[in-house]
Design goal:
The chain is of the alpha/beta class. Among the domains are: 340-419, Luciferase, domain 3, CATH 2.30.38; 432-525, ANL, C-terminal domain (GMP Synthetase, Chain A, domain 3, 2-Layer Sandwich), CATH 3.30.300.30. The chain has 16 helices and 27 strands. The chain has a six-stranded mixed beta sheet with strand order 11-10-12-13-14-15, with helices on one face. Strand 13 (281-285), helix 12 (291-300) and strand 14 form a beta-alpha-beta unit. Helix 3 (47-62) crosses helix 4 (80-91) and helix 6 (182-193) crosses helix 7. The structure holds ligand 8PZ. Ligand 8PZ binds at residues 168, 213-214, 217, 285-288, 308-313, 316-317, 336, 402, 404, 416, 419.
């Protein structure tokens, strides 16, 4: 009998976040862990060097006399240095709070006020005058006014301790801090690695800011599988030629990001996109990939592995589904799969009873060891989403109420169809704006579409659509698009106004910015 080869990366049970990510340093020390793009060339940091850098930062952190649980705010993009720093924080039981340098000062201050970090470290710029503010780089941490040393209360970091806190925008306008434990994030990573997207030698381009947990997925997918993460500098992402150059120079085999990262390249330099030599896989998440653009990408890159990853920061992600190649013409909703290994997505109706029938819409609830611990400093908000298991309330188990709607297809997999909270009553009729958006996207001249709900002059909810025409659109007018909607939906569902615009605004994470579109409507009306 032939011996099975030893796995390239071996993971122990109950690893901390940093132990999981550096496991490959034991078996593959000389493999690339981070591949950065700098001045037109690649800069490689091996697993051995990354571990050494993390150890240097950990020794630096030890100088400050912090307690397990003290927060460290890390203001940085993804880089070999920032990855080493967050690994160091994790090894000392110091939850890191990633914040992008591009975050507006006011929001950064709000996050700081809420998280009350012991240290606030930036990758660049002046260290700042406030207590605990400083700079990191080259394995050194410089804090001109260090915080007061504290007596340690705890001896050891446990898997239930917090690995990181990510602040997302709450519906109330106040950022919500999603607290993730080592156990949860590692449980998610394990479920993801079971999908075998990448292997040793691969390079995963990461396009999301460090404060969006998608970047942590990228890091986990790459390092956890013995591959390298290749951060795409945020400033270059907007320029299709530069973006593709980064992919070429870093020899990216996989690219992870929100769907909008592909828009400009598909539109302006499809030939160059088709020519990228190493690209084999694309993983997207955060919102639906406009199907026209998705099909275009498939035509340019036949055989490419496209993965639709669905989830929210409260569990990092919940499912992975491979997009069929080519996507059949009659597909209107992409499959989001059925929950990654170790999790179960329940589909429940408004009464909390399971939805069994195919095609019936329900709300998704996630049962998983990868759920957040709760929202930082907000027990009420936590209780609203980490709810008693509706199927067995006596167990005391909590499941995540996602607020997302889906239905089951004939194969039993889930098809995402919008959010419960964006569902509106228009003149007493239930309308899901995502359905209206889909209808608009079905028009041959429509490239992108967004549908927003706003309060009309008489206080009633109204729908308005913003549309970007495709490049080869043939003189379609706004009234034609409204008429197109009216052909297939009741009048209350058709947007009252359809506006043709040059582009749709995106938020910091690259998702369509519905808030800005709504503001635009209100300023136009004023
Ligand atoms: C979606 C999808 C989808 C999310 N199709 N709607 C990180 C890493 C990998 C995958 C996913 C993540 C998420 N944490 C990213 C994210 O967008 N998080 S979020 O908390 O800002 O928003 C979550 C919401 O986005 C979900 O509840 C869905 O409404 C939507 N979403 N993935 C369609 N593949």
């Amino acid at each position: 009998m032939r011996a099975t080869p030893a796995p390239a990366v071996t993971h122990r049970p109950d690893e901390r976040f940093d132990e999981f990510l550096l496991a490959a340093a034991a078996t593959l020390p000389d493999q690339p862990a981070v591949v950065e793009y700098a001045d037109g060339a690649q800069r490689v940091t091996t697993f051995r060097r990354l571990r050494e850098a993390a150890e240097r930062y950990a020794a630096e952190l030890d100088r400050f006399g912090l307690r397990i649980g003290d927060r460290v705010m890390v203001v940085s993009d993804t880089s070999a240095e920032s990855v080493a720093l967050v690994l160091a924080c994790s090894s000392r039981g110091l939850p890191f709070v990633p914040v992008s340098p591009e975050t507006p000062a006011e929001r950064r201050e709000t996050i700081e006020r809420l998280a009350e970090p012991a240290l606030c470290l930036s990758a660049d710029g002046a260290p700042g005058a406030a207590v605990g503010h400083g700079r990191f780089g080259g394995g050194r941490i410089e804090v001109p006014r260090p915080p007061v040393r504290r007596k340690r209360l705890r001896r050891a970091v446990t898997p239930t301790d917090t690995a990181y806190i990510i602040f997302t925008s709450g519906t109330t306008g106040r950022p919500k801090g999603v607290v993730m434990s080592h156990r949860s994030v590692v449980a998610f990573y394990r479920g993801m690695l079971a999908e075998e997207f990448v292997s040793v030698g691969d390079r995963v381009a990461s396009t999301s800011p460090l404060q969006f947990d998608f970047s942590l997925l990228d890091i986990g997918m790459a390092l956890g599988g013995g591959a390298a993460v290749a951060p795409v500098p945020r400033a270059l992402l907007r320029w299709p030629t530069r973006f593709l150059k980064v992919l070429r120079v870093t020899r990216a085999t996989h690219v992870n990001g929100v769907p909008s990262i592909w828009r400009q390249s598909l539109r302006h330099i499809p030939g160059e996109l088709a020519d990228l030599p190493d690209l084999r896989g694309v993983l997207f998440c955060g919102e639906e990939f406009p199907l026209g653009e998705l099909r275009h990408l498939q035509r340019l890159r036949p055989g490419i592995r496209l993965i639709n990853c669905y989830g929210a920061t409260e569990s990092m992600a919940a499912s992975f589904a491979e997009v069929p190649d080519p996507l059949p013409d009659d597909v209107t909703h992409l499959s989001i799969g059925a929950g990654h290994q170790g999790t179960d997505i329940l589909l429940l109706d408004a009464e909390g009873a399971p939805v069994g029938r195919e095609g019936v819409v329900g709300e998704m609830y996630l049962r998983s060891p990868a759920l957040m611990t709760g929202y930082w400093g907000d027990a009420e908000a936590t209780d609203a989403v980490l709810v008693t298991d509706p199927l067995e309330p006596r167990s005391g188990q909590r499941v995540l109420r996602t607020g997302d709607l889906a239905y089951r297809d004939a194969a039993g997999t889930l098809r995402f169809c919008g959010r419960r909270d964006s569902q509106v009553q228009i003149r007493g009729n239930r309308v899901e704006p995502a359905e209206v958006q889909r209808r608009l996207l079905a028009h041959p001249d429509v490239g992108e579409a967004a549908v927003v709900v706003y309060e009309g002059p008489d206080g009633d909810a109204e729908l308005s659509a913003f549309v970007v025409l495709s490049d080869d659109a043939a003189g379609t007018a706004e009234s034609d698009l409204r008429a197109f909607c009216l052909r297939s939906m009741p009048a209350y569902m058709a947007p009252g106004v359809v506006r043709i615009v040059d582009s749709l605004p995106v938020n910091q994470h690259g998702k369509t910015d519905h808030r800005r579109l709504r503001d635009r409507l209100l300023t136009d009306a004023a």
